[in-house]
Structure formats: structure tokens, C-alpha cells
Amino acid sequence: MRLRLRSRRASTRSSCIWSAIRARWRSPVVVERRCSPIWLAWNLGTEVVTRTHPEWSVLLRYEDFIRFPEEATARLVGLVDGSKPALPFSGPDEAIMGVSHTVSGNPSRFTRGTVRLSVDDEWIVRQPVRDRIVSTAIAAPLMIRYGYPLYDVDADRLRSSS
Q: Which of 11, 98, 115, 121 to pair with 152, CA 20 to 30 A apart?
């Protein structure tokens, strides 16, 4: 089942950036050259599963999840077992996080208790233009497939207002 998908450009400022910090990669281009292929591999792998077993697959973009977390989670649970259990939300933008056994990802995956869900758009303001160009060039075909723009006017507005 496909549970996560995020714009390649946003991923640079989240899970992959932590690897870069730990490895002490100095150049932003090195981060992009190492992390963009990882993003592509994960998403190409999920494409294979989706085409082989479409009944096991659902496309859930980060932006769609963060906008409607309860509905998105209910959709995923329904895909897995068809039931409608009580979901771990204490409000429209608050999830109750328990223990998770994930292997990789953003360090926030270790957070427990009530967590406020909000759009993470730090990357829009903080990602250097060169990094954005490199990551977009590498990931363009899948970005288009998943509905991400190659050039984001709203991102430019946010960057110029900060």
C-alpha cells in the first residue's frame, strides 16, 4: 500500500536532510544527487506495486493528508481491512501518536502523544534555488505524474515575503 508521497523538493528539507547532516555532506548539490535518487527509487517501487496490485494501492499525497487527516486515515484503514475503527485524532488537526517501528524517515517519527498536524512549508523559504532546480530536474517525470508543479508561483511568493 502506498502511504506516503511528498514533493521531491519538500523531501530535501525533511527526511533526506537529516542524512546529510549526519554524514556531514557539505555541498547542497551532493545532498540532491544522493537524496533525489532515493525519492525516485521509493516512488518507482510503489509504481510497480500499484500497477501489479491496484487493489492494494492508494495514492495519498502529503498535502492531501495534512488538509484532511481523518478522512485520509479512514480511507487507508478501509483499504486495509474495510472496518471503521476509532481513529487516533483528538481534533481536526491533532493526532495521538503511539509507538512506531519505522526504519527511516524524519526524526519527528519518534514523537509520542498529541501532535499538531500542520503544513511543513519551511522548504519553500529555506531551500536554495540551486537545490530546487537540481531536485526538480531529477524528479520531474514523477512530479508531473503526482500532480506537483515543476514551477510553483506560490512558492516564489512565500520566498519573497520572508
A: 115
